[in-house]
Amino acid sequence: MGTENRSLKLTMKPAQKQLVDALITAGVVTSPVTRAAIAEANVACGKSASVPSWILHDQSRRAGRGLFHVPEVAGGGHETPAPAAAPVVQPAAPVESPVQTAPPPAAAPSATLALTGGESATLVPNRMRTYVPFGHFDDMERIVMSGLFYPCFVTGLSGNGKTTMVEQICAKHNREFYRVNITCQTDEDDLLGGFRLINGETVWCDGPVVAAMKNGGVLLLDEIDLASHAIMCLQPVLEGKGVFLKKIGQWVQPAAGFQIFATANTKGKGDESGKFAATNVLNEAFLDRFPVCVEQEYPEMSTEKKIVTAVMKSLGLGEKEDKDFGKHLCKWSNEIRTLYFADGVDEIVTTRRVVNIVTAYSMFRDRRKAIQMGVTRFDAATQESFISLYEKIDAAAQVAPEESGEVARYDLDSTFDQKDEVKQAIRMLGGNTRERFDPVKKKWWITQAEKDTGAFEAWNPAPVYETATESEEAPW
User: Fold this and answer.
1) pTM as predicted
2) Element holding 153 (H helix, E strand)
3) Per residue of the chain (476 residues), what is the pLDDT tens digit?
């Protein structure tokens, strides 16, 4: 056993050794160690006030309620305690033995923690530079800051920031964020935990719900109205009374700060519109355990302008024409939503879709194309009506119909730095470069014959019809 201890001590990860050193510095030189002492040492290491997953999820380190075996503080390795002292009360040998003998490197973290290499502090989400708080952000933030257990059900149409709101509250207040996407197949094993095969051993792994409870994190049950009756396993959790893990005979109490949010497109009563397929009618007793239900609306047009401006800034869009596009885009989406709620149209443009259109515009720098790409998922009649509505708002996006006249020329989409390359290509085909630059539109142009050579495809030749040559804005 001594040889095994020395080997384990030598293979400790830097983060683990840092915690042990912090415990020793704090005067902890005997094992077992209290939860509070470990949490304080973790804070001294620059992390959250919690027990690291390599200790918390290793069943062999459990020494009792709020106590953990950390023999490394006394200079020894991690020695598995006698089976009689283990917290596993289930007598069946196939369950008890694997839980006790699982090696520390294969400790049983939740699926979410495993993705972060066992470093629970990294579950705090990053702050979004483009995020603009709106809707029920302030109310939800106050609930998180209160420290009280107060489960919240957040409902609303898709793409209006329900999930992002909870995520960014956690980012702002440095809170661990456990997001679980619910489907009709989500069951107790997915949520509370189960046995997994790791390195040839059957090991108990806490589910995200239990991990959030133990670490005092914020749990988000996303799209909860897709759940089946299996979601009822969370009844005691929603009451804030803890939960009993039947498979390992362990009672888990929620740590301070534990909070639950649930998001859905319905209020748990199903959907008759057909827009939110597979949503279910949730058990009334389950829904009643949420003290509050808030309905998230789409942002006001002024707020959506701030969102679009922030996204454009992050994409390097700051010219006047970019800002004009953002202004027209927000007016367009707002008018469509007004029509939707008045039963004037069957589809809606979400804030998420507005952001996606801005992203498309940043790549193609074509307003009409960005709008077209944003509405392609709708049926042909809806696409046509939405594009037509945008053209009425933004005249710059209108395209002259081809039958209104012959193509007079093709404008090139080239930059200032590419002018010499364009001029050379025009000269090689016998063109006069002095006559090929439109100072009003600041565009180089070519003829139909020159376009047909294919030499200018890199600059996306755009047709200009004879009807446009009659205007004073673009004389040539």
Assistant:
1) 0.63
2) strand 152-155
3) 444 343 334 467 888 888 888 888 888 888 888 888 888 888 888 887 788 888 888 888 888 777 888 888 887 554 444 444 444 444 444 433 334 333 333 333 444 445 455 554 579 999 999 999 999 999 999 999 999 999 999 999 999 999 999 999 999 999 999 999 999 999 999 999 999 998 889 999 999 999 999 999 999 999 999 999 999 999 999 999 999 999 999 999 999 999 999 999 999 999 988 899 999 999 999 999 999 999 999 999 999 999 999 999 999 999 999 999 999 999 999 999 999 999 999 999 999 999 999 999 999 999 999 999 999 999 999 999 999 999 999 987 776 554 445 778 888 888 888 888 888 888 888 777 666 777 777 788 888 888 888 888 888 888 887 654 444 343 33
Amino acid at 339: L
- What CATH code is assigned to 124-295? 3.40.50.300
Do residues 464 and 473 touch, judged by C-beta distance below 8 A? no
Tokens 């107060």 belong to residue: 150
3-state secondary structure of 155: strand
Residue that the structure tokens 């009563």 belong to: 269
3-class DSSP state of 351 = helix
Do 61 and 69 form a contact (C-beta atoms < 8 A)?
A: yes
Helix, strand, coil percentages (3-state) for the chain, rounded to 5, are: 45, 15, 40
Rounded to whole angstroms, the Cα distance separating 274 from 281 reads 14
The CA–CA distances, whole Å, from 226 to 163, 269, 361 equal 15, 11, 34
The domain locations on the chain are: 2-122, 124-295, 301-397, 405-469
- 470 burial via Cβ count (<10 Å: 0-12, 13-18, 19+): exposed
Strand, coil or helix: what is 103?
coil
**Bridge partners (DSSP) listed for residue 445:** 411
